[in-house]
Specification:
Order of helices and strands: HHEEHEEHEEHHEHEHEEHEH
Oligomer: single chain
Number of domains: 2
Helix content: 25-40%
Structural class: alpha/beta
Largest sheet: 6 strands, mixed
Number of strands: 11
Shape: elongated
Length: about 325
């Protein structure tokens, strides 16, 4: 789907919605137009969409040949090859299947950190917008849910088709961060309520004192393929602060007076690395996609490069 082909929705609406041509310029739109969401460990649906599967089926897209075996449909025999080689071969085709796509965005107050384009919640909205537009434009059923945030319980879909993109983006424009993080509980509720396995994207800073591992395990238990987009601000990854400060927890309101010097900052960086390594190790060991991003990096580059390298888009 291109902006020219779908003037009422899709990626054109994404550019209008955010109102910043530098975010989704024409070269970016052309690159996004070629993307498809990929799921290698989840069962595809029965209703055919616009995607092409590696499974061999009965659509009109030619895939390959193989030798004829008794019981094959004789209508698939390639008589030209038979005439040349005196051996029967049947034509194989790529099956077109849809993929249930679920986009879960952390809307807790910890996501409301960072100025301008580096704000974690704004960055997460852009990731959710782009991934949703790719799914809808590709004919896949898409559902979005806001975990915490305002308005409470905000969700979209399941919906299908590029004509739904504008309505999806309009919903995103009404959302704001609010409340406390309870990621594990939210993911568990989602896993219990969704019946159809699909490709689940979790967009979050994962700053939950109770951890997120139990919720991710519940998603896997329901047959979902899970991809965690771990979103952090540059000053969280590498703070440049010094002196006497009062730290305020954005979600719980608790305070802590600290004196930041090179020794304290060094300890913070070591603990941060341990936490990040543990999260990534947990995900990798269980087949969960884990992609970390800094909001200081362009979000469209993250979609086009990092997620492509992860193998969840192509």
């Amino acid at each position: 789907m291109t902006a020219e082909k779908d003037p009422q929705g899709g990626f054109a609406a994404l550019g209008v919605f955010f109102g910043t041509p530098m975010i989704l310029d024409e070269p970016t739109l052309r690159k996004l137009n070629a993307l498809t969401l990929i799921a290698n460990r989840v069962r595809a649906g029965r209703m055919r969409g616009d995607r092409r599967s590696s499974k061999r089926g009965t659509s009109i897209e030619f895939a390959d040949f193989r030798s004829y075996v008794p019981g094959d449909d004789l209508r698939r025999l390639d008589w030209n090859i038979y005439a040349r080689l005196d051996r029967p071969f049947v034509r194989l085709f790529e099956d077109e299947e849809d993929l249930a796509v679920y986009l879960l965005l952390d809307g807790s107050l910890s996501m409301d950190w960072g100025e301008g384009d580096e704000n974690k919640f704004a960055y997460g909205l852009r990731l959710a917008a782009a991934l949703g537009a790719i799914a809808l434009g590709g004919g896949d059923p898409c559902r979005f849910e806001l975990l915490a945030g305002e308005p409470a319980g905000a969700h979209f879909g399941p919906a299908r088709g590029g004509h739904q993109t504008l309505r999806y983006l309009q919903l995103l424009g009404t959302l704001s961060p609010a409340g406390e993080t309870a990621l594990a509980a939210a993911l568990t509720r989602f896993a219990l309520n969704r019946q159809r396995p699909g490709l689940v994207f979790l967009i979050s800073d994962l700053l939950d004192p109770a951890g997120v591992q139990n919720g991710l395990t519940h998603l896997l238990g329901r047959g979902h393929q899970v991809v965690v987009l771990h979103t952090l601000a540059p000053d969280e990854l590498d703070p440049h602060l010094s002196g006497d400060l009062k730290l305020i927890d954005r979600e719980y309101g608790s305070t802590q007076e600290v004196t930041l010097d090179p020794v304290v900052l060094g300890g913070y960086r070591r603990q941060l690395k341990t936490w990040l390594d543990e999260l990534e190790g947990f995900c990798r060991a269980r087949g969960i996609g884990y992609v970390r991003t800094s909001t200081g990096s362009p979000w469209d580059r993250f979609i086009l490069r990092e997620l492509r390298a992860e193998g969840v888009v192509k």
